[in-house]
Amino acid sequence: xxxxxxxxxxxxxxxxxxxxxxxxxxxxxxxxxxxxxxxxxxxxxxxxxxxxxxxxxxxxxxxxxxxxxxxxxxxxxxxxxxxxxxxxxxxxxxxxxxxxxxxxxxxxxxxxxxxxxxxxxxxxxxxxxxxxxxxxx
Length: 137
Hints:
The chain is mostly helical and 137 residues long.
């Protein structure tokens, strides 16, 4: 299975946003980019897509930044992948040829399993356990 780098970056950054959730401050793009080693210019695009998809919120200004719209355990990998790569779960294999319908059935089963598993894993499951405490100044 090969997921896009964009999906991977989105999941990594959301794991960081999960660490900020419920705290007094919003996450700044520079901090997110540094913590997850994601290019900040690319991260801007990803964060915009996540915001437009309702996964995160943002606020401008000195006290601005980014935050999850829901608790980390309420945001599944499926929710994120559906926003970042909508075609990922679209599976319409051809039923042409003598084996087409059997191949399509098999691929649809695999796709359904992948979707089901993606719905079971949340951002909470991706959050680093030993990253140290968050300090707010």
